[in-house]
Structure formats: C-alpha cells, structure tokens
C-alpha cells in the first residue's frame, strides 16, 4: 500500500488536494519544481468539473443518435452511451489518448532512457500520467512517479499467504483477480467513505487506491508466475532505481533480456486504454459506479478480461500460428500460407488476430509492435515473428475475397503473444495476466474521473423480447 495518508481533516477540507499531494512526496524523492501526480490531477479538477457542468446544463437533451433493436440484441455495439476521458477509438484512425495517436505518444512521452535507464520505448508510467492529466509529463515527473510506485510495490504479508494458498492448477487469471479483490482489505476509499466524506473529495482516495494497485500488480503477477510455473526470483524483489516493468521482468526471471524489458514497456503502455466499451474497462467502470473501491472494481474488470473473446485472444492467435508453422514449416511459400488460411476459413473457423469490433483499418497497436520487431535483430530473424509479418500481408487479401470479415486487417493480438513467445516467455496462460497489468493504467484513471465528476450509478433500461416486440410492432 502506498505510504500516502489522507489526514481525517483533509477529507473534509477544501485544502485536501494539497495536503494529499504533500503526503505523496514522502514515498519518493521530490525533485525541485516537479509536481507529483496528485498535484497534477488536483490542478485539472476545476476545469474538468466546469466542462462537465456545461455539458450537463446546455446539452443534456441533445441527441447522439437513435437506439435500434440491432443495438439492443447485438451487445450494444456502437452505442454512444459512456463518458470516457482517457482515450477515443475511431474506426478509421484508431486510438488516441487525450488526442494523441500512438506515434505521437511515442514522440512526446518520456522513455526509459529519459529517466536514466536502458531502453528506447515509452514507459507505462508516462502513459499513466497522460491518461490521468491529459498532459505529457516531464522526465523528472516520470522518474518521481516511477520511484513512488516502486516504493509502494511490496505485497502485504496477508496477501502473500493468500496467493500461496491457491492450488497451482487454478488458472493464473483466477488467482490474479482474487488477489486484487483481497487488497480491498487496505482500501483508503472504503475506509474514508465509511467515516464520511464529501462527494466532491471521492476522487482523492480513489486515486490513492488506484496508484497503490498499479504499483502492486507486477508483484502479484510475479508471485503467481513463480507458484504456478516455478520461474522467477521467488521474492518479488523491488529495486527502487528501476522502473515498473524493469522490476517486473526481473521478478519473473527475464531481467537479462533487454529486448523483452523494452517490449513489455511498449506493450503495457499501448494496451492500457482502448476507450471504455471493451469488457474489462466497462466492467471496471460499471462496478465502480456503485462506489465499490478500485480493488473490487478492477477485480471485476479482470474477470471480464479472462474471457476468450477478450484477453485470451492473443494466446489463441499464437496457438493458431504455431499450428500453421507445424504444417507448412519455417520457410513456407506464399501459396502454402494462403492455402492454410483458406483451409481455416473453409472449416468454419475464423483467422484469429484479424478483424476488430470497431476498427476498419489496421490496428495502430499492431503497427507499433511490428515496428518494434523491425528494430530488434533477434526478432527480425525469428521464424515465428517472420511468419506473423508475412501473414499481415497475405491474410487481408484472402479475407477480402472470403467476404465475411468487415475488417480484414490485423489487430494487436496478431503480434503481441508471438513476440512474448519469441523471447522465451512461453507460458500461454500467463499472457492475459500481463494484459491485466496493462489495462489497469487505463481503467483505473477513469474511476478517478468518475468520482471527480460525480457520475451516477450505471443502470440502463432492459426489456424482455415480448416487451420489445410490443414496442416495435406499434
């Protein structure tokens, strides 16, 4: 748990943001003229509330489109009915984080090298700052945040005992979500709410819990990895001079792989937020709307992420790609690859890793991961990575000819698991846990915005088929 504390008087005072931020500095080195993340979030609260009040006052009755039966029975696909601050997903241009594309984020956000570590990729800490504040942090602010998270990353002894009590045969994602929920024991939000506090101050302990959880997720994941697969340091050791993902990679026993460390930095940063409608983000937001604390809310999100139609997709892609490689060999011709694609489609299966619920162009996250592969000699020469790159060229024409795919282009899952496998991280069941570390840096900041803006409990109207038929038959 973060060493930050919220004084009782601060919870009932307009000066709370400053007191709260001051407490944060005890967790790490405070750089001259450098804001803490708490300071930075506190600065944007008045403007965000003013913007929200204007929307509510002036545009509440403005239409965003009609709800059709197809929306109701089709998983609410495409309905504009959620407020989500961190990112917006456009069918043609892809994801943007507070208006910044992935390439723009890579240019603007501090990298490992910018805070004195080895590596060229953006840090998840940088993306977290952006998602919480809408602004790119300075190098010093990211370094301070990284150290703050490192200081908060150690697991409490009761949680270690809970994780160690799980049977090795229990799926890592089940263990992960259970451990996250158990941290509710230490929730600052739950404690403050039970004592009584102003609704306008809910965002403060929500932010504290969220940062505490983000700090501890790598150690939770690493302890599960050690217990289930017998790999890693067994202690979840944390070096406060290392960034979040550098520590995580050492904890799972891959600390000597510079390529994997930098890949995971990029992977975690760009997987973190993908607007609010996906299952893991939406589930976190939905449960949080009942004022459940961030630990309980994100545990719900992880349970959604564990589904085969969501977070398990990258391991399905990898399994299919390995099947392809076994059948056609490591140096197949284009025709052999195309024949296998047709074989898959004619058998009634889909080609995993292609298509997207929203996108109608290649996934910018796939593009970013592909470019990373091009910068690493060990990946350029790896047969499975080469096959993935060839598939990205050969599969779209086949899928277009097949005619049943709205988006024939690769999504992020087409590449993400294959690169982990190439670096020797071949425990498929652990892949979604890594995704779970990432999604927290998008879903949890939105909880802070939900509390900052005072959003109500989410409660859509439902209809039976008979009631629905009566309405549409009029």
UniProtKB/TrEMBL annotation:
One of its GO terms (biological process) is tricarboxylic acid cycle. Keywords: Acyltransferase, Mitochondrion, Transferase, Transit peptide. InterPro entries: Citrate_synth-like_lrg_a-sub (IPR016142), Citrate_synth-like_sm_a-sub (IPR016143), Citrate_synthase (IPR002020), Citrate_synthase_AS (IPR019810), Citrate_synthase_sf (IPR036969). Its main location: mitochondrion. GO terms for molecular function: acyltransferase activity, acyl groups converted into alkyl on transfer. SUPFAM superfamilies: Citrate synthase (SSF48256). The keyword Nucleotide-binding does not apply. The keyword Acyltransferase applies. It comes from the Eukaryota. It holds the Pfam family Citrate_synt. One of its GO terms (cellular component) is mitochondrial matrix. NCBIfam families: PRK09569.1. This is Citrate synthase.
């Amino acid at each position: 748990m973060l060493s930050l504390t919220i004084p009782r008087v601060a919870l009932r005072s307009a000066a709370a943001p400053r007191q709260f931020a001051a407490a944060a500095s005890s967790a790490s080195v405070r750089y001259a003229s450098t804001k803490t993340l708490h300071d930075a979030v506190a600065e944007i609260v008045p403007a965000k509330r003013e913007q929200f009040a204007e929307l509510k006052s002036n545009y509440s009755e403005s239409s965003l489109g009609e709800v059709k039966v197809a929306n109701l029975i089709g998983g609410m696909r495409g309905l504009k009915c959620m407020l989500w601050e961190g990112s917006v997903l456009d069918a043609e241009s892809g994801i943007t984080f507070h208006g910044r594309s992935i390439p723009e984020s890579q240019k603007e956000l501090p990298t490992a090298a910018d805070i004195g570590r080895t590596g060229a990729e953006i840090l998840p800490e940088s993306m977290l700052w952006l998602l919480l504040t809408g602004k790119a942090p300075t190098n010093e602010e990211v370094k301070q945040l990284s150290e703050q998270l490192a200081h908060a990353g150690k697991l409490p002894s009761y949680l270690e005992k809970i994780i160690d009590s799980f049977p090795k045969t229990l799926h890592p994602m089940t263990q992960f979500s259970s451990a996250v929920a158990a941290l509710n024991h230490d929730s600052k939000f739950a404690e403050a709410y039970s004592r009584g506090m102003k609704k306008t101050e809910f965002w403060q302990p929500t932010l504290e819990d969220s940062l505490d959880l983000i700090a501890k997720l790598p150690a939770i994941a690493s302890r599960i990895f050690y217990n289930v697969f017998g790999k890693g340091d067994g202690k979840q050791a944390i070096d406060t001079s290392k960034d979040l993902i550098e520590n995580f990679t050492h904890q799972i026993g891959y600390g000597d792989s510079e390529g994997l460390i930098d890949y995971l930095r990029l992977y975690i940063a760009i997987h973190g937020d993908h607007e609010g409608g996906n299952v893991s983000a939406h589930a976190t937001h939905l449960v949080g709307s009942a004022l459940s604390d961030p630990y309980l809310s994100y545990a719900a999100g992880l349970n959604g992420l564990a589904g085969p139609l969501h977070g398990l997709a990258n391991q399905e892609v990898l399994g299919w790609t390995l099947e392809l490689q076994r059948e056609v060999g490591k140096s197949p011709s284009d025709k052999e690859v195309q024949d296998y694609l047709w074989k898959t489609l004619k058998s009634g299966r889909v080609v995993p890793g292609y298509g997207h619920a929203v996108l109608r162009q290649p996934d910018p996250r796939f593009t970013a991961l592909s470019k990373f592969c091009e910068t690493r000699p060990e990946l350029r020469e790896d047969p499975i990575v080469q096959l993935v790159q060839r598939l990205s060229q050969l599969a779209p024409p086949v899928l277009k000819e097949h005619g049943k795919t709205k988006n024939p282009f690769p999504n992020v899952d087409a590449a993400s698991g294959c690169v982990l496998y190439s670096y020797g991280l071949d425990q498929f069941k652990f892949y979604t846990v890594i995704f779970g570390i990432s999604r927290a840096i998008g879903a949890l900041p939105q909880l802070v915005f939900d509390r900052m803006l005072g959003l109500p409990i989410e409660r859509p109207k439902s209809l039976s088929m008979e009631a629905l038929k009566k309405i549409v038959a009029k």
